[in-house]
Amino acid sequence: MKYNPNEIEAKWQKYWLDNATFKAENNSEKPKYYVLDMFPYPSGAGLHVGHPLGYIASDVYSRYKRHQGFNVLHPMGYDSFGLPAEQYAIQTGQRPEDTTSVNIDGGTDKEGNKIAGYRKQLDKIGFSFDWSREVRTSNPDYYKHTQWIFIQLFNSWYNKNSDKAEDISTLVSIFSTEGNVNVNAVCDENIEGFTANEWNAFAKEQQEKILLQYRLTYLAETEVNWCPGLGTVLANDEIVNGVSERGGFTVVRKKMTQWSMRISAYAERLLQGLNEIDWSESIKESQRNWIGKSVGATVSFKVESQKSKVESDQQYIDVFTTRPDTIFGVTFMTLAPEHELVSQITTAEQKAEVDAYIEKTSKRSERERMADVKTISGVFTGAYAEHPFTKEPIPVWIGDYVLAGYGTGAVMAVPCGDERDYAFANFFKGQQGMSAIKNIFDKDISEAAFGAKEGFQLVDSDFLNGLDYKKGTQKVIEELEKINQGKGKINYRLRDAVFSRQRYWGEPFPVYYVNGLPQMIDAQHLPIILPEVEKYLPTEEGLPPLGNATVWAWDSVQCSVVSTQLVDNVTVFPLELNTMPGWAGSSWYWMRYMDAHNENEFASKDAMAYWESVDLYIGGSEHATGHLLYSRFWNKFLKDKGFAPTEEPFKKLINQGMILGMSAFVYRISFTYGIASEGNNEVVETLKKIPTVFISHEKLKKNDQVLNGLLSTIKLKDEVISIVKKRTQLSDEFLNNLVPFISGIHVDLKVINEITNELDIETFKNHPLYSDYKDAEFVTEENGKYIVGREIEKMSKSKYNVVTPDDICNEYGADTLRLYEMFLGPLEQAKPWNTAGISGVFGFLKKLCRLYFDDNGLIVTNDEPTKDNLKSLHKTIKKVAEDIEGFSFNTSVSQFMICVNELSTQNCHSRAILEPLAITISPYAPHIAEELWSLLGNTGSIATVAFPAFEAKYLVESEKEYPVSFNGKMRFTMVLPLDLNKEQIEEIVMKDERTIKQLEGRTPNKVIIVPGKIINLVG
């Protein structure tokens, strides 16, 4: 009988499927435990070995909890809307729903690409998912409920008095009886006041426009990250280094009318909720910084050029500052380039320069502007503002370090107290529009700004002289309120989330337009299904892809989607052309898992009351300020409306580290001809005749050669030039002027030996990726081998360093993969993948099996276990239970190896030991555990058998092996009970034949005995 992982694993995966082994019940006498993974986007590339890391960890924990008697919900689904499928559709003409389906279920797409399929790959690894609850966010039966939640948001407002979302009807009631003067709501800025009589007299359209200023999801013209290459708006977290994360396209700032969500209404609750959840401090800090709570004051500066005797016509620049005490140090003001006042106050002389700067800035993302603290840029508008107390003119600049969406989009610059303002003032020092820095601190600022909030007194600050930060802040707010030019305020960096995407493959909005105003489709008519389109690109008029749909209008009488040709704006109206962003479906999916087949509700109250919230969530830290923040926002909203049972969705969060790939490189030599090659056609043509030369990494290393640079080592240069001469017969004069450069090229791992790092040169030359190098020359080691360089990088198809779990499972089995991924290192740390280590884990599993069976079959006995057997087992039970509870999975695997080695040495085949051992290892290696459990004569699955109880008595030492020394030199050992006192030990030692032989009739001068430690006879 041999360990055959492929046969064993296929058998038990089928058993689990046929018997619904991991199906969770919504009503159970068992205590509940909900384990959730961040569900994947199903790309055509499929899984690589880095993807399952978190899934394996959550699976180990889920299985352990089942062993402990919990009713465990461990579901899986797919975040299946998104840009990648749409981009692929644009490139190949395939329907995104078709490619998404193939990516999940496997098969061959219309391009002829064979797709493994996420479901098959996941099943192959043996996860204990409850597949009966699978969700796909792109399925109409799922996004029907996403649309419903959107409608609830639209029909809600945030009441600051009750500190929660309420139905919009309660706001309408207030307006109709009291007007809006006393309404304390989160809403648009600068809303005009009205009385109850005025509200009741407003036309319906006017009332709807006003309500849009209060709704939790609303239409507004906002600054967005527009990506022309993708034809859509991107969120900040979808932009890397100023370009789109997907495709690397340029991103510019642009004003567009968009759907937005008032996540800002929940800023304080999102902050306070972090104190109630068990998340890593780094993730909490990321969210705190993103929310960015600041306590300070708003200050209004009159625009001098717009001064008017009529107060209603007066223009103001409003700023928010956390340091109102420094108001007498204001030297200049800076507006965001996108600030609406810029175009109004810029003088004719400065217009061209300002316009050019705005155009340049629009190409930088907000994230890039925030991160770039070194670049100083700005332009003077030519305008001035008036200081609220001194009435002095303050020059107004624009600068891209100020963001339109943060605060008011304007800052009062106090260079003496702020490093960035200090650098800006010094950079533009002496230019028109930049005043000399004012110092209002009793501190020297000749070298740097003084930014501390303590240890100073204010000077040259009028009525604030002699005050500190706290007293100065309080006093200036009082004086600002007296002159009606400011007040105390709490501000947040968190901005309302743009909720529109100009793309096809996303949730359709349940929205149609009457006279340009949005109307919600009644929930009973949902879902509004994504229509068919011929093209996935924007229309020729620049409308989103849904503008290509021929059946995309709403018949308000028939309550159905009809042909766009029927639009008459009387009974048939245009539907929304934008779709929802990628985070829409992922902002509530954990609730759908609770009751995945409910057709009428996203989940029943009973199901949600039972499961409440996620007990353990495992996923990537990259979602800290995206998905995790939006999810908490939606959960809090649904709690306000009585749909969610808890304030926070995820009690405990673990962020798994990344598994990195070990890339391989070949090193190519390319040539220039000094400076003479530039523009010299004859030289350029001659250079083209030179063959590609690759040089072995080990040869470069031995010669201390720096890679990706000039090949300067004389010996190597001569060797390379010699090869070129043989191949080309070029003159010595030409060869002597060649300048060789070296660069590393990623190479497919399939053309190297991963253990020896040797390149298979012939396979490399014939590989379709490297067809340009068929005639290349190779500078090898003395033994004729070409050794590639290796480097740890992110696993990626473009780096050819991807290892698929399918390959590992096929060769070694899923249990080996699971154990190895857990063994690589602490879950939360990044770690490199090294396939060479797999064989050791595979060998361990074979050694485990040899405790249970040999070539002839089962060898387990009913023999009584020895003390050593029991000690090895219970040491392992204790360690594994503690490790799983503490998420230290790597040390559990080490303990398994120690235990199996000990039991093998002890020649243990006792059922009393091996049966509980199989259960203990089951969470990590479930397939072989099931097989061993079955071989031992048990029926049913091992998955729900109680976890073995640790008994401390088996680890209590009752005996001690003492070293017996004579004059400090150990001569022999003896095993004695630990409960003996000094006198009893001495009596036994002195009577021992070995002691008598050593003493040769002498009497020792001294007998030193420390019970449990040493025995030493002196003299």
Automatic annotation (TrEMBL):
Could you say which EC number(s) this protein's record lists?
Answer: 6.1.1.4
GO biological process: what's one of them?
leucyl-tRNA aminoacylation
Coarsely, its chief localization is: cytoplasm
Subcellular location(s) of the protein: Cytoplasm
The answer on whether this UniProt entry bears the keyword Membrane reads no
Q: Short name of one Pfam family for this protein? A: tRNA-synt_1
Catalytic activity, per the record? tRNA(Leu) + L-leucine + ATP = L-leucyl-tRNA(Leu) + AMP + diphosphate
Q: Where is the Aminoacyl-tRNA synthetase class Ia domain?
A: 11-155, 790-820
This protein's UniProt keywords = Aminoacyl-tRNA synthetase, ATP-binding, Cytoplasm, Ligase, Nucleotide-binding, Protein biosynthesis
Q: Where is this motif: 'KMSKS' region?
A: 794-798
List, alphabetically, the InterPro entries matched: aa-tRNA-synth_I_CS, aa-tRNA-synth_Ia, Leu-tRNA-ligase, Leu_tRNA-synth_edit, M/V/L/I-tRNA-synth_anticd-bd, Rossmann-like_a/b/a_fold, tRNAsynth_Ia_anticodon-bd, Val/Leu/Ile-tRNA-synth_edit
What Gene Ontology terms describe where this protein resides (cellular component)? Answer: cytosol
Identify the residues that bind ATP.
Answer: K797
Residue ranges annotated for the Leucyl-tRNA synthetase editing domain, each copy included:
288-481
One example GO MF annotation: leucine-tRNA ligase activity
Q: Does the keyword Cell membrane apply?
A: no
Residue ranges annotated for the Methionyl/Valyl/Leucyl/Isoleucyl-tRNA synthetase anticodon-binding domain, each copy included: 870-982
Family, per entry: Belongs to the class-I aminoacyl-tRNA synthetase family.
Recorded hits in PANTHER family, A to Z, give: LEUCINE--TRNA LIGASE, MITOCHONDRIAL, LEUCYL-TRNA SYNTHETASE
- This chain's protein is named Leucine--tRNA ligase
Species: Flavobacterium caseinilyticum
Task: Quote the gene name from the UniProt entry.
Answer: leuS
